[in-house]
Amino acid sequence: YREAWDKDKTQISVPSDTPVMLQSKVNALNISNKHYQKAWDEAKAKSYDLRADAIPIKHAKASRDIASEYKYKETHEKQKGHYIGCRTAQEDPKLSWAARAMLLQNDRIYRKAYHDSKAQVHIPVDAMSVQAAKDCQTLVSDVDYRQYLHQWTCLPDQNDVIHAKKAYDLQSDVVYKSDLEWLRGIGWLPNDSPDVKRVKHAQDLLSDNVYRTPIESLKYTSIVDSPDVLLAKTNAEQVSIVRYN
């Protein structure tokens, strides 16, 4: 099946001047690393003479000197100690200002005057601020806040005191239940009173034994001449086979 194809595919020839072939050759040259480095390899194979005063060499040296930390600090090291302009550091306004700033930022020196004077403060006992602090401490004190109610300092016959006592009596659970506690154990109800009968009737209604009483245990008699009895008798005679025969 493939014998003819295997013979033909080895004999196919494409013209070399077709656009596809030309484009493929150009693409091969563009992506060829050898063709890309051809000029550089030819230049390396030849001998070259690069002088020390050439522009690229001078540019490289200048860049190295600029980037060098030693060259960067060379001028600073030469001028160090020559730009103060004063005989002592205290005469230089900038150094004096820097020293003053350091003193202001020092926390120990900042608190020195306070620590020296805090033990020498004398406040009168009857000063307004001291009295106000005492009153405030009394107000926020838990001991004074929780004092007992019987430690009143007002007169017992004042209107607000009397009103408060009445309010306490109305809210008191002991006073509210005092009459009930006095009547507890001494109450009596007769058997024929309405309350007792109502309770007994409610018990009969709620009693399961009375609710589920079998009908056979009840005593009742039917009326002889009632319409239901007469109708039942008439129907019995009509369906009676004995009378029919």
Description:
The protein is mainly α. The chain has a domain at 190-215. The protein has helices at residues 3-9, 19-30, 33-36, 38-45, 55-67, 69-79, 93-105, 107-110, 112-117, 128-140, 142-145, 159-171, 173-176, 178-183, 194-206, 208-211, 227-238, 241-244.
Helix coverage percent: 55-70%
Q: Please tally the helical runs, counting DSSP H or I stretches of 4 or more residues.
A: 18
Tell me the number of strands: 0
- The low-confidence parts are none
Average residue-wise pLDDT: 79
Anisotropy-based shape: flat
Main sheet attributes: strand count, strand direction, barrel closure: none
Q: What is the H/E string?
A: HHHHHHHHHHHHHHHHHH
Distance between the termini: 111 Å
Strand content: under 5%
Rg value? 63 Å
Structural class: mainly alpha
GO molecular function: actin filament binding
Protein name: NEBU protein
Pfam families: Nebulin (PF00880)
GO biological process, one term: cardiac muscle thin filament assembly
